[in-house]
Amino acid sequence: MDRRKVLLVVAAIIAALGTLLVFLYVHGADQRANDRYKAVQVLRAVKQIDVGETVAAAQAAGKIEVGSVAQGQELPGSLNSLTPIQGEIAQTTIYPGEQIISSKFATSAATTSTLTIPKGDVAISVNLTDTARVAGFVNPGDNVAIFVNATSTAGLPGYYTKLLLPKVEVIAVGTTTVVATTTTDTTGAQTTEQLPRTLFTLGVPQAQAQKIIYAAANGELDFGLLTSGSSVNPNAGANTQNLFK
Predict the structure, then answer these.
(1) What are the sequence ranges of the domains in the chain?
(2) In the CATH scheme, what architecture does the domain 39-106 have?
(3) Which of 47, 74, 139, 175 has the maximum number of C-beta atoms within 10 A of its C-beta?
(4) pLDDT of 172-203, one tens digit each?
(5) Distance of alpha carbon 20 from alpha carbon 170, whole angstroms
(6) 62-65 — which CB contacts under 8 Å span 24+ positions?
(7) Reported confidence tier of residue 205, pLDDT bands at 50, 70, 90
């Protein structure tokens, strides 16, 4: 075999090796791309989860859902099940779209020395039963209408229920405690119930704070949880004279 033929064979071998290496590199890059963009299931916040909010409360309020992200976008510590953090509390605000990460939850509430109060408002707290607080669905950041149940004042007949304030912001939710409540019926018989009550802190102007404090001292308050489509307007309220009209 002459020199020319040898060089042609060597060149052919080198070209074949080069083609093989290019093929292997492209195939590997395609595989790496597929691995990177392969969809994985993760839990994501669909509504804001506030500091101090329990996992159970966030789940009940529909704030957490399962979603898909590219494998390369999955964050370290992200979860696809709530089991590892059941019974835990958010340590920081989790915004809509964020992945649920175990490190943002703990078994005890995050310590904080400040309370964010809307500018110009004051913070006051009211203590409500489960039924008066919409069965536990009211969370920090929610807006509520406040209703008052009381006996006759300011010319209203008998016992009445009336809208006190159409929209108030809840800025914090405290712990729930069990309180013994004793009621007396018309025969004088007394009944004692063990009722859970929860502290709610509201951010309101001074005039509204005075109304809420007075109403709580002279009657009972109930929250109505508001949505963007809620329609709440002041009216005559409900009493014994117009209940069935």
Answers:
(1) 1-37, 39-106, 122-239
(2) Alpha-Beta Complex (3.90)
(3) 139
(4) 887 666 666 677 777 878 777 666 778 899 99
(5) 66
(6) 64/100
(7) very high
**Sign of the CA dihedral 145, 148, 154, 159?**
positive
Q: Residue 165: which residues within 8 A CB-CB, separation 6 or more? A: 145, 146, 204, 208, 211, 212
Q: Which tokens hold the place of 69? A: 């992200």
Q: Contact 79/104 with Cβ under 8 angstroms?
A: no
Distances from the Cα of 8 to the Cα of 16, 29, 109, angstroms: 12, 31, 76
Neighbour-count burial for 211-228, b at 16+ CB within 10 Å, e otherwise: bbeebbeebebbbbbbee
Say how many residues make up the chain: 245
Alpha carbon distance 221, 173 (integer Å): 16
> Under 8 Å CB-to-CB from 93, ≥6 apart: which residues?
48, 49, 50, 51
Angstrom distance (rounded) from CA 155 to CA 162: 13
pTM of the complete model beyond 0.70: no
Condensed to tens digits (0 to 9), the pLDDT of residues 104-122 reads 888 876 655 467 888 899 9
The residue type found at 176 is T
Structural tokens at position 131 = 């039924």
DSSP string, 58-127: HHHTT-EEEEEEEGGGPPTTB-S-SGGGTT-EESS-B-TT-B-BGGGEESSPPP-S-----TT-EEEEEE
